[in-house]
DNA sequence: TTGCCATCCGGAACGTTGTTCCGTATCGTC
DNA sequence: GACGATACGGAACAACGTTCCGGATGGCAA
């Protein structure tokens, strides 16, 4: 899945130099295009910006989602790793959960169209969907569980469901100044509390 | 906006018979296509199902949104009219608000892709956006206001913002059995309550 | 009834997307 | 220096929304 070169000893036959260079250039061009036009920037535009043919994109990133995942992998990792850290530092599991959701929302809101793509049933985004869920749902589940055990929130909500709801609420954020996704997510979390 | 023939005495020069017939056929075909494939069923498919050329669709419904609006106008009207009725009947404004949101959610959830289209920034859906907002936001505002005055919910939420949030939460409902939009909307409303 | 013209229809054609495919160029090695 | 594996470029294809215009057709006037 667009592996940038992980564990040694793997049977990876070491790619050609131009291939590695192009992959790097593509990642930068894609990142720039995503900032400028959102995650569904036309493939041709990204290719042009990178000075590369469209075929090259598809060889390195078989689906659009692979490209998106590769571009945002670092930030998703950071978000995933922040979960346990927050749980350890915050003065309550509920605070940790709130803070973590804030992190997630910030991430989504600052990436044009990412939230949309995340919910899209377009086959091209299946990998994206899978990656986010695999990486973040367990983290969310841990936080949710801790908060539930502390008796602060209802315990009948699944992490997957909560994350989808949060992701959905982030759709369209930044396009309309009168819609504040963060506030709406805050409301959702407030609805989760027992009182 | 796809007027089906409203007030008499209007300067409407009475359309030709075949035009009126085709408009009717088109509405039925579109309704069927929307049920089968969602509101973004290919225009060509709708035309074919209606036994009509694509040009005919665009003459009657200049944009995709006009077609969608025409198909669902009755139901949107019904939803809008239910607002004041609920406010009069229910034992509290808060109950009325909850019931009305339920109605709205039911409507969105049963129409494949409607919620998605509603948030899309695609220019083709601008009319749809405008119609829903014009028609439903005032109703929601009235309910919200009544509930706020009764002191049951926070008063710092705009109707527009709430409706967008609810609409967003309905995205993707029915595709994934593990995601229950109604439940999530319930959570959001719970977060609105003062306690 | 007939004829005429405004109105409306059908579908070809255009522009934009994602995606595939293959002849050609390049890299790395022997 | 030559050769095979690898990678590249961009033409080509398919699916979509949308526009456009030659031809058909409905309604009215004579």
TrEMBL record, chains A, B:
What UniProt keywords apply to this chain's record, in alphabetical order? DNA-binding, Transcription, Transcription regulation
Ranges for the HTH tetR-type domain? 20-79
Tell me where on the tree of life, at the top rank, the source sits. Bacteria
DNA-binding region, residues:
42-61
- What protein name applies here? TetR/AcrR family transcriptional regulator
Q: Which organism is it from?
A: Actinoallomurus spadix
């Amino acid at each position: 899945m667009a592996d940038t070169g992980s564990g040694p000893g793997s049977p990876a036959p070491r790619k050609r130099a131009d291939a590695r260079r192009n992959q790097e250039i593509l990642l930068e061009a894609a990142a720039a295009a995503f900032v400028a036009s959102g995650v569904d920037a036309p493939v041709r535009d990204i290719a042009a910006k990178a000075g590369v043919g469209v075929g090259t994109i598809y060889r390195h990133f078989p689906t659009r989602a692979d490209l998106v995942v590769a571009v945002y992998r670092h930030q998703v990792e950071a978000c995933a790793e922040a979960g346990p850290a927050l749980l350890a530092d915050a003065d309550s599991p509920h605070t940790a959960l709130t803070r973590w959701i804030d992190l997630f929302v910030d991430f989504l809101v600052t990436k044009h169209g990412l939230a949309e793509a995340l919910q899209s049933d377009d086959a091209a985004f299946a990998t994206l969907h899978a990656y986010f869920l695999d990486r973040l749902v367990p983290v969310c589940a841990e936080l949710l569980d801790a908060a539930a055990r502390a008796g602060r929130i209802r315990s009948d909500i699944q992490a997957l469901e909560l994350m989808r709801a949060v992701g959905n609420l982030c759709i369209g954020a930044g396009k309309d100044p009168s819609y504040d996704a963060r506030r709406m997510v805050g409301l959702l979390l407030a609805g989760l509390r027992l009182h």
